[in-house]
């Protein structure tokens, strides 16, 4: 029995889990199942809400009245924090990375609607993110408040609990459908979901590979970041747990031109999956991972039909699609 820290009941779980029959047949490889973590909520949909159940519980327990967090201008994480903060009566301050202040569309529109304070910073300024957090926390302290800092993507030892718990939910999905997947596939950007799933599968004794597809940076970066998150979790929560055998498996072959920038093949994938299975992907995260998975199936990098199933973890991102809808050609 795992002793979870305090959490809030914010996500609509368990999320649906089922077989993508038509796509599996089209690809002719292992069966592809999907875990619909894009359905953890409505405006708060996506993987981030699982992490925020623990992070925001910690913020409230610490007596904080303000939450500061960071991300790209179309950050799913920042949107979830903005809306959940409004639900919980917390002030939210978002530090967003962009060279010019963009039009309020997609996730950014929802940030504004939720009443978040938004500060835009250039890519160069964002390299001093730690200092920005410190300055804003000091600012709110001077005003008589107390600000809780959540890192980009909610990716730290506390946030990892969200996907340790999700792994327990996945185990129940696997048992219900009598499958033993060869891999759980997902998009990785800040590394927290990846680290949480790896540790969760280890703690819940799920014998499967966690295969992450990078949407930014390279595999060496994720090796370092995941190790950092694992070690922080171990130090803070469970020094006796041996994490030495947990090694990140990250594919960086399908990142594309840059974070948040996708080639036409990614938009073709969005159209294909929507028309074939009624699943909506986004060009920043999930479509890149899904495209990478399909390409690797075609290239025989996963075992064949009789060698185990694949589970695709849909981490959300629908609102980011609206910010790039002009790329779909309709």
Reconstruct the topology from this structure.
Blueprint: E1 17-19, H1 21-27, E2 32-36, H2 48-61, E3 66-72, H3 76-88, E4 91-97, H4 107-113, E5 117-121, H5 123-126, H6 129-142, E6 147-150, H7 161-177, E7 183-188, H8 192-203, E8 209-214, H9 219-237, E9 249-251, H10 264-277, H11 286-298, E10 310-314, H12 318-322
Parallel strand pairs: 2-10, 3-4, 3-6, 4-5, 7-8, 7-10, 8-9
Antiparallel strand pairs: 1-2
Helix pairs in contact: 2-3, 2-7, 3-4, 7-8, 8-9, 10-11
Q: Counting H and I runs of at least 4 residues, what is the number of helices? A: 12
In total, the number of domains comes to 2
Rg over C-alpha atoms, rounded to the nearest angstrom:
19 Å
Structural category:
alpha/beta
Helix content: 40-55%
Which geometry do the CA atoms define? Answer: globular
Looking across the biggest beta sheet, what order are the strands in? 1-2-10-7-8-9
CATH architecture tag of the largest domain: 3-Layer(aba) Sandwich
- How do the helices and strands follow one another from N- to C-terminus? EHEHEHEHEHHEHEHEHEHHEH
Distance between the termini: 51 Å
Largest sheet: 6 strands, mixed
- The residue ranges in which pLDDT falls below 50 over 5 or more consecutive positions are none
Description of the structure:
There is one protein chain. The chain is of the alpha/beta class and 330 residues long. 42% of the residues lie in helices and 15% in strands. It has two domains: 202 residues, Rossmann fold; 107 residues, Rossmann fold (3-Layer(aba) Sandwich). The protein contains twelve helices and ten strands. The chain has a six-stranded mixed β-sheet with strand order 1-2-10-7-8-9, sandwiched between helices. A four-stranded parallel β-sheet has the order 5-4-3-6, sandwiched between helices. The termini are far apart.
